[in-house]
Design goal:
The chain is an all-alpha fold and 235 residues long. It has 11 helices and no strands.
Length: 235
């Protein structure tokens, strides 16, 4: 377990930054708790470098979502204005209106002169108090009108599973198939095994049945051979 942990989490340079982004998107942590925790885990020298990488990663991820939403907004606005205006003069007005709408949306999301972006406003607010029944997804659903881009980010990032299962463990049934010994117990042997259960439970010294599998196999073989011999004698 320690080797597995070190492989995925031992070196901060190789760690997936999404684990930190998910913590930043927790309104109880943000960028106040995360840098503190990073320094505590990796030391001040490595921690400061990692904090800068996490901030840059957060900004770049937010910019990607802003661009995606800006494209969707411009497409919707162009589709709406095309059906309502006509003529050359209206065509020029339509282009100006569309550009204005795109600019307003861009300024609202990314922040313009004298304004703050969604990300800056979110990080500037106070941390949510630590309570036992805090539901982070419900918080983002309630605050989606204030932070639509960040709410979409939170929906995607917080849905990523923290761990995964190896494909051979998920699809291979080799370890779950009963061997010939366990799947072919005779009724008499099953009765014999059930009977000693009470004896084993009363033993002061625990007995490991796994160590006597070879003996049990030989016992079952002898019983089968004796049954065959008795059948031959009867004939």
């Amino acid at each position: 377990m320690k080797e597995k942990f070190a492989k995925y989490w031992g070196e901060p340079e190789k760690m997936n930054k999404m684990i930190f982004i998910a913590s930043i998107l927790d309104p109880r942590n943000k960028l106040e708790y995360v840098p503190f925790a990073i320094v505590r885990m990796f030391g001040e020298k490595v921690g400061k470098k990692l904090i800068l990488e996490v901030k840059n990663y957060m900004d770049s991820l937010f910019d990607c979502y802003v661009k995606k939403n800006s494209i969707g907004t411009s497409s919707a606005s162009s589709g709406n204005t095309t059906t309502t205006v006509s003529g050359y003069g209206s065509f020029l007005k339509r282009g100006t209106m569309r550009t204005k709408l795109e600019f307003e949306k861009h300024k609202e999301v990314t922040g313009g002169l004298g304004t703050k972006s969604e990300l800056e406003r979110y990080l500037a607010e106070d941390l949510e108090p630590e309570i036992d029944d805090f539901k982070i997804l419900k918080w983002w659903k309630i605050n989606e009108p204030r932070f639509p881009i960040l709410a979409e980010m939170a929906r995607d990032v917080l849905a990523i599973p923290i761990s995964s299962v190896a494909s051979e463990c998920a699809f291979s049934t080799g370890g779950r198939i009963f061997d010939s010994f366990r799947s072919s117990l005779t009724p008499k042997l099953v009765q014999s095994l059930i009977c000693p259960q009470d004896w084993l439970r009363s033993e002061p010294i625990p007995i490991k049945v796994e160590e006597d599998l070879e003996y049990l196999e030989q016992l079952e073989l002898d019983m089968a051979n004796s049954a065959k011999d008795s059948t031959i004698i009867d004939i």
